Amino acid sequence: MMEKSHLLKYFFFSLIITCKLLQPQNTIGQISTKQFGNDTHDSIFLDYKKIKIDNNYTYNIEQSTIDWGEQLLKELNISGLNNYEKAVCINKYIHNNIEFCGFRANNIKEIIENKKGNCFCHARLGIFLLRLAGIPAKFAYEIHIRRCSIFGKIKGKNKNTGLYGCAHNDHIWVFFYDTGNRIPFDSSLGIIGMKEFITKRWNNKFIMGPPFVIYEDTGNGLEKMKNITIKLWNTKPKDSFNIIDFNTWYEFLNSFSEMEIEDFDKPLDKSLLRRINKISKLWYN
Known about the structure:
Order of helices and strands: HEEEEHHEHEHEHEEEEEHEEHHH
Strand order of the largest sheet: 12-11-10-7-13-14
Number of domains: 1
CATH architecture: Roll
CATH topology: C8orf32 fold
Strand content: 15-25%
């Protein structure tokens, strides 16, 4: 009886080991779930075949686009790199080869063919290539300070071109994950990493003003996003606030820290508009 029992245990142990060995390894394009810090991210952020834009629309990637992406990743020779290094290569490729302009493409295939696109185009292409490389990626959305000309204010009345009465004062980019950290990826501006994000978005008045509201995708695309503004700006040292002082900037940020993305679909309270105008004058003084 003892020998038969040992044989049965050995048989089942061997069966388990065999099944594990037969499981496919995580290679480019395969979907898996992973734990990142305190957040558990669903496979939706690794699914390169589908990019959820909002609760009403999910963009399905064409097979020809997937084939193009796989060939590109091979040419970039990133197989031996870690996630951050892979992301740097992908960001550099998009920034150097896809012109950042006002062109709005319906799909990634159009972006590739025309070699240009707006920030939404850059974000979609970035998410696709990052996920295809096995890196979790999702949308980031910001609202930033912007100098408003008379023309800009007139144009900004159209909801599709701007918020709070100014044209093009919102921006879409990407967060990817590496070793449990949320990392900015903005190929339209050639920015990758928290240090570059904080430095370039704060010190360069000629790109666009710094974001005072930042949201991240929670699995619903550009809807029902999470406000993480304070968390991101907390990475900037207090003594490095050289244009607007730390206390003034954080008092301003706190005015919007509880606002949902849907709150910007309607006119802002006049007190908030006054605060935006005041901080904009300080910034562009």
